[in-house]
Amino acid sequence: MIRLCTLLLLFTSSLIFAQDYTITGTVKEKESQQLLESATIYAESIKDSTLISYTISENNGGFQLDFKTSEPKVNVFFTYNGYKSVMKEFVLNKPKFEVGDILLQPQLQELDGVSVVGERIPITIKKDTLEFNADSFKTRPDATVEDVLKKLPGVEIDSEGKITVNGKEVNQVLVNGQVFFSNDPKVATKSLPKEIISKIQITDTKTKTQEFAGEEGNGETKTINLTIKEDKNKGMMGRLSAGYGTDDRYQLNGLLNYFNNKERVSILTGANNINNAGFSFDEIYDMVGNTSRGISFNSNGAFSVGGMSFGFGQGIVTTSNLGASYANAKKGKYELDANYFFTSSDSYNDQRTNRENFLPDGSFFTNSESNFEGTTKSHRGAANLEFDIDETLRISVQPAMSVNNTDSENISATESISDQDELINRNRSRTVSNGEQRNFSNQLNIFKKLDTIGRYIRFGFSNNNTENMNVSNFYTRREVFGDNPSDEELDQKTFTNATTDSYNLGFTYNHPLSKKTFVSLGYNFRNAMNKNEKSVFDYDEVSQVYDDFNTLLSSDFNFENKQHYPEAGFRRNGEKFRFGLSARYFFTELDNEDFLQSTTFNNKYENLLFTANANYSFDKRKRMSLWYYSDLNMPSVRQLQPVPDVSNPLNVVIGNPDLNPSTNHSLSLSFNNYNWQERTGMFFHASLRAETDKIVAVTTTDEDFIRTTEYRNIDGNYSIYGSARYSKQFKKDSTFTAKINIKPYFNYNKGVSFSNGQQLESNSYSITPRISTTLNFLEMLELEPGYEFGYTDTRYNLSAVDDINFVTQRATLKTTTYWPKNLIWGNDISYTYNSNVGPGFDKDALFWNMSLGMQMFKEKATLKVLAYDLLNQNNNTRRSTGTDYIQDFQGTVLQRYFMMSFTFKFDQFGGKKKKSSMMYLD
């Protein structure tokens, strides 16, 4: 309480002595008097060159710089890309200043009578690039790249670590223009310290073809490039961390980076049993287990970072990893980066599922419990090599290899109960599996420029070769009760050897009709061959070995997918308006032959697909985009093969060889605007997705609730999605900053399926408004409260099925105190509530993580004590709905533990510090 009062006193005192000031004017080019849009105007403290405030000129060249300070005078800089910067000193003897026209000259000319500066510009807006000076945005001394990104206008980072810029997702982060371990942005943003970063450049993501040909990206995704400071770009830096806690919880991780201009070597290692990826070095919030920050979970619960998988299930994962990355480049000659990762993980998870299944005349319930344990060891290596033979010819090669070894055991029990609460059937099973998966892939691209105005050819070849070998033991017992009771057992051993060999060949020719108008022609061929040998042996009670070959469940088939398509495109790249249209005509042939089951089929399809996009830039701040895209979903072997799959005795699956591919049609509209004067951002996105000939499961359920599932093409499935975002930054001076985000989401989904011959339709609506704020006082106290409300309403066409609606709520509060000096206290609190989960499932939980860190040895080390799930209420409960079901799920989660950790960071740099470019010509 004393600390908080002291902080409030300091904050109040600073506000009392600080005054509000406004500087207005117009920025012009000196010779032509052209109005300069997106010039940067910023105020600095004369005392220590601290950034006080900044703004950007409007499209009429006008600007208004608002700031609050207690200093008697400030330096104000006027900058524009390609022009010499002007500095003027303002004696703050009045609240408002009108400076009239500020005249800038091109960089090659000299200025007389004023000061010029070329450094410390907080933001520079170029044609397609936003460039931020990292040092202009104040953070705590131990901040990571992620911390400074959160300070940038228009940049948002959600709780999953996903980065967006003005509503557009960032899909890769580069370091000095090169990949850092992988394209996963989180690896660089969470592991690299802000102190070594000079510039943060944000551009539209480009394909390799667009990059080499000098074309613009489509603007739908963004790339962040981090440039290392000149004096930090030669030497090494690293961090080591170790922690141990209650319940034998532990974490070890380390990172070493060596920089030598364009050459970089990085080594990363870690081990823990708290569901942590192991590469983050947040001084206060790291090592607090899985709160989903920076970790993406797959549908089966395994989490992955940058293509690396850790574990199987959502439960507790113990991981060890070791990685190395190398990058080098020589301008005009080559660029290369390569990485290798080894991961080892052990997982266990207990989960429980209660599901209500809808039938045309009622419903029944399926209750399941399972226990899973698994081990995986993975090796993964990848490289990216680009060779510039000359200015017109580039060759790009991207090989990758991986080997995964897995062992797992899954024990499950399932029972089906009627709506009269009668037990109808029961199934218990145990599966023990051991497998190895090998993969090799490669991409080869050759680009050749034929002139300097956009005529080029591209040749591409890629392959993907996978081998999956698995041995599993499967035991199950199915009991059916009622009028026709039965009791059946299966005890089997299965040997599987599956290979997939896929090859793609493509050619593109781009021809300019004018400087801004282009047509393109291309041809692509793809061949994918799947070979599957599955041998199932039943257990023989007499010989007591698995030697009774089960022909019905075994298979030996070849499945080949041959596809080729010509394509043609047109695009127009104007200053404000860009438009593109392309068409592809697909010829597809599917061949299948099962030698064991004596089944064959040959299906041929022809499909015409279109893609179109239009982008209009109102100015450098506002853009509107319209997209249409269509693609094919080919039926899988399982969906096509007319052979019963009885591996699940309660659900027999039969394929349909007459299936057609489904076609996805997507239409989206987006608008984004960022007002630099007001620090206000707005983003809107709406999309419609419809799927024709969707492949759906058609289920028939008998009186014993034994299901038979087939597949059919059905129309009528579509979804509508809408989202918006409003953000506002407040900053008067260095004492107080605030950011507010309001993000409403809307989703509508119509699903169509069949059950017992009758069509089922569901109409599901969900609305999820979110609000979050970040408040920072004197860089000593940071508060991040947030609230999310979710409402879901699902309606069904069957009178026997009740409509469902439920509410979810989540309130969060994150606090960080950096006072007194060298002491960091953090709290991360979230409360979740689910209104309509079934009996026996937790409806709410208060999840609280707390940590206290002390910096020592001149901030080179941090000693930290943390408490994870302080109240021991963490849970993993959720409700979901589908066309013919409602399901409640609960799984194992990491619960309360306490840990003490120690982090040490070191560096040794030999580069020269960049000299200031300040010049006085008075």
From TrEMBL:
Q: Which residues form the Outer membrane protein beta-barrel domain?
A: 448-777
Classification via Pfam families:
OMP_b-brl_3
Keywords from the UniProt entry: Signal
Organism equals Zhouia amylolytica AD3
User: Any signal peptide, and if so, which residues?
Assistant: 1-18
Q: Which InterPro entries match?
A: CarboxyPept-like_regulatory, OMP_b-brl_3
What is the recorded name of this protein?
Outer membrane protein beta-barrel domain-containing protein
